Amino acid sequence: MCTVTPISLTVGANRIVPTVAIPHPLGNPALTHEEEKTLRRHLVEKALKALQTEVTEQTIFE
Amino acid sequence: MSKIRVVHYINQFFANIGGEEKADYQPELRQGIVGPGLALSAAFKDEAEIVATVICGDSYFNENLEKAKKEVIQMVASQKPDLFIAGPAFNAGRYGVACGTIADAVQAELGIPVLTGMYQENPGADMFKTKVLIVETKNSAAGMRDAVGKMAPLALKLARKEEIGASSEEGYLPNGVRKNFFETERGSKRAVDMLIKKLAGKAFTTEYPMPNFDRVKPNPAVKDLSKATIALVTSGGIVPKGNPDHIESSSASRYGKYDIDGIYDLTSSSFQTAHGGYDPTYANEDPDRVLPVDVLRDFEKEGKIGKLHRYYYSTVGNGTAVASAVKFASQFSKELVNDGVDAVILTST
Amino acid sequence: MKLELGYVHIRDIQFASESKVENGVLHINKDAVKKLILEDETIESVDLEIAKPGQSIRILPVKDVIEPRVKAEGRGGMFPGMIAKVDTVGSGKTNVLKGSAVVTTGRIVAFQEGIIDMAGPGAEYTPFSQLNHLVVVCEPVEGLKQHEHEKAVRMAGLKTAAYLGQLAKDIVPDEVHTYETFGVKEGLEKMPGLPRVAYVQMLQSQGLMHDTYVYGVDAKKTLSTMICPTETMDGAIVSGNCVSACDKNTTYHHQNNPVIEDLFAQHGKTLNFVGMVITNENVYLADKQRSSDWTAKLCRFLDLDGAVVSQEGFGNPDTDLIMNCKKIEEEGVKTVIITDEYAGQDGRSQSLADADPKADAVVTGGNANMVIHLPKMDKVIGYAETANTIAGGHAGSLNSDGSIDAELQVITGSTNELGFGRLSAR
Questions:
Q1: Which residues of A touch C354 (CB under 8 A)?
Q2: Which residues of B239-262 are buried (b: 16+ CB within 10 A; e: fewer)?
Q3: Is residue C242 annotated as part of the catalytic site, yes or no?
Q4: ipTM more than 0.90?
């Protein structure tokens, strides 16, 4: 899970989930705590989905 | 101080035995100097002496690699040298491969410093430049003086175990090991000069060739998430408050393994970031923003995942060398496998 | 825009009863400076020290280095939008107290601050060992938040440099350098056959201790834009960051941008130095894409033949660097990029986090991970123990005898990516 996905691609990660921002990949201080948690759940769900998906090459799960 | 004992390896051509028709010449050990060894010897002055020369035909060597290596190493060893020099091979391909191969083998088996020289397009160069130092030469024997001018001083440094400078300073082919040195001109001037050349279509040399990164095959997908153990790993530097393992804010030399058994949420009172490369305010306020423990605990409770592994691994990615990251992960992924972890969520900043 | 930069050479610095510049000596009234700095109520106390080239002095943790300058004639004042009112600068006459600088230090704000050694092996790696410094040691009031602490010290440094610069206002400079760039039409008429070259400067803009300000505007809130190179000589761009001491651009670097100087040296001879594009390095991927798209667009719009691109920082900004390089090249504009390296202490790791074959012309400021030993200095201004936590240091970097073992990263300006220094790597 990473914000700067070009780097993930360059260094060879195979399952990549884009995140919010460098200092808070899984958060957003502009939101309320509840909204942030919802956002975080959504992103981690994507990650879990990526783990359950067969891939043959580097894939970004938008 | 006693003279440095050198053994020199050359091919049939430089030994004046013959050309192509003598390329099958079998290894021969001669006392003293032969052929180009004379130029090397002159450059060494009193510091070193070529006590013996090994001559071998390029075809013989390349077609009998294991046998030839053994024979030559035995000959070299018999002279008890402090230093081994092969070539220079210029653009002769089989000779360059032979020089690289034998220098690498001598270095490994006899543990003495070795040096060779060849043209950058010699196939032996790409094959061996990361294994042995290869002085960059011109593409023919007309460049012998230039080659010896670089090989002799570098050879003496190697023999004396002195610090070796950057490739452009010492004259060896860039070997992937970056070394600092001071240029005569500042970087901005070098950049402007390089651009002027590039715009004029003239040749220029980049100071840093773009790196390559390796690739790994993707692992098969997790079959049943509801039974899977998921572990968290981060390069975002989330550590227990106080950074007990003193993970560095940049160029981390270590990683931490932390127990989150019974922890359902990371808070500012118990965790923090050690990473010096991003504004830490947000991660310090709520470390879940970098390491999503709270949400994974919820998924655990809801049965979406089997369980969240009780340990997480953390380091600081800021300026940390790729080789270090590889080292850390090689170590702790063994533990992850042993602990029955099925998948890892890696977060980075 | 045309600027006449006048150097008033400073060869010594001392505290005195009256602040003035006389015969190349900068005299400073301590109380006057302290009073000025303490106008900011978030600063609890301030100490002033002097550090000169060759003295066995170590300053750490260094936040910024600023050169005293003043607008002697013409529009605007130093550090527009920060100290002086907003007004376009970069023209008229500016005087510089050349050979002097203000260095800010004090309790650490975040990890990235640096070290300046005025003597010994460490002195070779920083340009600041060659200057006469007024060191401002600031202590914040108790409980001050990090963002406010950073701002207080930043402003204290700029204020002090502006105050000292004022002392040169009416002095006839020892030497004058004239810099002039032209409008598009005039430039084409004056230099018809010369390749059109611009300087693309990337500015660090990632948050606390990672910010840069342009006429007082936080660079993270900007779209890529153009600026006249001479504006930077009047402090249009100031540093609010350390990012890592080795490759952060101090305000001094911004004021004395060597790429600008070296392009001007060729201006009208081998190239037409058309102007400057500034762009940022944000923490959102969309911002990186937008900023680099915009930069490439401006390069195309200016009908450039080539561009020198300088980076600030490392890690995720390597993506900004590669995006800028690629996209500018794709517009048919040839690039040379200036960066530094993080190849590991053994020099064997990949030096950049991102790469592209189009980046075929690279100048490097050296490997920041190289380990150095800094012997103990007789005097330390600031806090010695910060050596253990600043970027490039580790727990135990500070030895009991006062010497330091750390990476080159800790030395302010050591691998500067404007190409300020001569350090490089192969």
A1: 4, 6-7, 10
A2: bbeebebbbbbbbbbebbebebee
A3: yes
A4: yes
